[in-house]
Amino acid sequence: MSMRILVILFCVFLMNCEDKQSQKNSTESTTDSLMIREATQPKDTVIDIPKPEYPYLTKDNAMEFFLQYEKAHKENKVRLYTDFGNIDILLFNETKFHRANFIYLTKQGYFDNTQFYRVIENYIVQAGSTDDRKVMRKRSKIGRYLLPTDTKRGFKHDRGVISMPSSDIDNPHKLASPYEFFITLRDVYQLDGDYTIFGKVISGIEVCDRIAKVETDDGDWPLQNVYIKKVEILN
Asked: Cβ–Cβ contacts within 10 Å for residue 199, how many?
């Protein structure tokens, strides 16, 4: 066999090897490209939108909700951090719906940045309302409901008890406004039977006395806002 033929055969062999290597590289490149596309291609996924942890409360579901809520949430001591100092309150287990309501609202952060909006020296300081739009929006998300009176537990409106005012709406049964409360600064037994006592101040009654001395307008609203900066559960 001539040298020329050997050279030709060798060249053909090299060309075949290069073609196979090229095909291999092409296949690997295509595979890599597919893998990259698959990795970056968005997959069809179902977005699980979390449901609210608690329902919107109304007159139809609030009582059943608090009946179940109070069984799992037995806390009964809270601390109010105010502009004038701290007030510690013991919530009575006997008035379970009102205790559960207060604990629930505390855990929802409702009372934070609310105000003492009615103060009368040597009588009461009343809190839980506000002119802050952020707090009002929070209130509207929690619900619109009232609580029935629970006045036959043997409690009296002694100095330092916490009680729940009735709503401003036409309310012959004096259903309680769940977002508000008042603390008595002296014995006011004329309120017995109309408003639900659901706790008492165990520390900081002197803070309430100081709040009650601030200057107010004709509606007993302090001329300089007195805030509850935060309410915290102690147990």
From this structure: 24
